Amino acid sequence: MSGRNPSPDESESALEPEILDPSDDEVIEAEAAPIVLDVPQADGRMPADAQAVAPVTGLQQYLAEIRRYPYLSKEEELLLFHEYHAQGSREAAVKLIMANLRVSVAIAAEYLHTGADHMDLIQEGNVGLMQAIKKFDPTKNVRFYAYAAWWSRAYILRYLLNNFRLVKIGTTQDQRKLFYNLKKEKAKLAREGFAPDTKLLADRLNVRERDVIEMDQRL
User: Fold this and answer.
1) CA distance 138 to 32
2) Residue 161: count of CB within 10 angstroms of its CB
3) What backbone torsions phi and psi does residue 33 show, to the nearest 5 degrees?
4) The model's pTM
5) CA distance linking residue 61 with residue 121, whole number of Å
């Protein structure tokens, strides 16, 4: 297969028509469920339960590496975003990314059932993490990792949609919209006190009811 890879800006443009931006409430809800990541023990071994999921040496080394970067306090995070926005500081952006690499690891683990390589999923999630740096508004009273998780997941889903038969379920705009947003819209309706039935979901996402049913079965 030939042709150049899309730039981050082009990739972002391809994503945006299909993914509904997170609402403030959704980001706040994500913040209430902190990302937890198993990291190698002091002797370099993975915990027993993690070994069963990810026995690959390369993954162990990666987790050991990101363990070196501590979590940021809210104050440290805000200072780095100020440097990034006011001064265009690349160093500040790198610090923010390195401190939040755990986000991509945790989200990638949710999609191991697809048969995708864990490290490939992590790298896609990290591309989303970089997009989140550009889009995050530090004046809102939420932590960056909660917002970053949204973009990390979006890029992982795009990768799966484009590369794996298990989830390659169509190429129409409606199908892609459902792939990215059906689960989220169900949760949103439940929070609003509605039963997420097929008709309501179809109306909210502006798609056909039969497409909702088909996607729900596939997912």
Assistant:
1) 17
2) 18
3) -120, 80
4) 0.62
5) 16
Task: Name the token pair of 50.
Answer: 């993690």
Query: Are residues 164 and 180 in contact, defined by beta-carbon separation less than 8 angstroms?
Result: no
Tokens of 30: 């994500």
Tens-binned pLDDT, residue by residue, of the chain (219 aa): 444 444 444 444 444 445 545 555 555 555 545 555 444 343 334 344 434 444 446 888 899 899 899 999 999 999 999 999 999 999 999 999 999 999 999 999 988 888 889 999 999 999 999 999 999 999 988 889 989 998 998 899 888 877 765 445 555 777 777 777 787 788 888 888 888 888 888 888 888 888 888 777 766
Determine the topology of domain 8-36+69-168 in CATH.
Four Helix Bundle (Hemerythrin (Met), subunit A) (1.20.120)
Could you count the other beta carbons within 10 Å of the beta carbon of residue 180? 19
Domain boundaries, the chain: 8-36+69-168, 169-219
Can you tell me the distance from the alpha carbon of 39 to that of 46, in angstroms, rounded to the nearest whole number? Answer: 7
> Cα 208 to the chain's mean position, in Å?
27
CA distance 61 to 145: 22
Q: What is the DSSP letter of 47?
A: P
Measure the CA–CA gap between 211 and 174, rounded to whole angstroms.
Answer: 8
What value does the CA radius of gyration of the chain take, rounded to a whole number of Å? 18
